[in-house]
Amino acid sequence: MDLYGFYTGQLFDAHTYLGAHFSEDKTTCYFRTYAPRAHHVDLLIHDTAITMTPTLDGKFYETILQDVKPGDKYEYRIHNHFGGYVDHSDPYGFGMELRPYHKSIVRDIDYVFGDAKWMSKRSNMMNKSLNIYECHVGSWRKPEDEPDSWYNYVEFAELIIPYLKDKGYNYVEFMPLCEYPCDNSWGYQNTGYFAPTSRYGTAVDLKKAIDMFHSNEIGVILDFVPAHFAVDEYALHYYDGAALYEHPSLDIQYSEWGSCNFMHSKGEVRSFLQSSVNYWLSEYHFDGIRMDAVSRLIYWQGDEKRGVNKCAVDFIKGLNHGIKCSHPGVMLIAEDSTNYPKVTVPVEYGGLGFDYKWDLGWMHDTLEFFQSTPEERVQRYHKLTFSMMYFYNEKYLLPLSHDEVVHGKATILQRMCGLYEGKFHQGRSLYMYMMMHPGKKLLFMGSEFGQLREWDEEKEQDWLLLKYPNHDSFLAYMAELNKCYQKYDAFWKMDYENDGFKWLDCHSESKCLYAIARNGHSSRVMAAFNFREFGQEYVIPCDGAQKVKVILNSDWERFGGTTKECETVYEAVDGYFHIDLPAYASCLMKVVN
User: Which residue in the list 134, 246, 287, 292 is annotated as catalytic?
Assistant: First the structure.
């Protein structure tokens, strides 16, 4: 291993040396770990403690065995200089036991992918449609005969792939899959940065699943946690008897979630995290990485008043630049709530190097608007227009994520103002507005059929709701809206160009009416929105168009509305289209002249 690169934080392949690796002929297994302040290290395997040999500069330990097979469990006993020890799982281990157990598992992760065609053409989707379905593998569906268990990765893929294709999603984003001990952390407090969670199967199971997604033209994004890790003493916490991966200073060692903050100024920590990201992309063929809590990297403890954490910022830049050099076709996505500049500017031009940044401001403003009464919306009218004042500063992605359907916030549909029936009308218009707004899209599972119960990681989505017409028709509407998004390049071809978007009207405050035009290379679409509780005639500028055809109306009867579905064409009269919009209705049109 390149020791200089490891200690200076330049390695992206430390996992090819550290951890447990079979020889090419599978007859020998090499165990290696990094524990610079240990007195000595034992490998615990086959009910035996084997003293490991210091190697390289003496801070690494190695043992070579010939009686090891895939599935064998092991851990490292790290002895300190005071006569004590702690048994740890392997930081670079490729598998771990299911909680509450925690030993590492020897894995043979060899798998021959059949996705060469997909890999050769994948991209960051900047000028393409990107409609992401955010998903928690364990609670999307549960086995009927074992509701307290989970489908494995392959079974999950078999179930969800036809659903995604039918409903108009072309990417799926998994919530964190690095091994984690506590179910209700949802994977955001990790213990195994190289081990796919054993809840859903083995490393090879996950590879097979991703291969299946790719063969069906569906990309896969992994949610990754680079800021902090779980405090469980068997994992990274005080690995060699002292602060190795975490900050030694107690005032910044722990995060607001009670987890340990990585010390990004240390080269070996950078090499660890960089190698982890590279491992998921190289070994599993993930198509993108969504990085959690980037604000906690940019600023000390995520607090702008504490100042910029320069070492962590440098880490982000080095990580993103290195990944882009090795994997130019993947996308890097930042979950960042700060106003830190140039998040989506390439590193070579002074930026952080992400492809996209979650637009959390748009998310909060939009949901606050729809929670308001129709009378309050008059005063909050520009909650829906403000995002375009800053949109072109970054490459934004519009998320309605898992964070918005938990902890007493209510689900997306529940947040719509008013009574039960009216929520569906408003929800359909909310999602049409989301599609018409520039930026790639992300929606959390269950929202597409109007889930009314907050997400619970222990329970599957309430699929029984689809027996009720309101929910079934809502899902049908969402599928058709998604397919319009995929079909017309006006929705995505010029997302980040000024000419791709235009307000036809954003000054009908008292009426709560809005009109938007989107331009592509081969299509042009317009949409009109009525966010009041009564019907209105809307006169909108035609902006050079002479004729438009309705391609989707949120108030069509088959979606639970009152408008009869028929071919509707509007022709310009003195430069305007005259459109009748029922209460809470929206109308999507394509320019046909």
Answer: 292
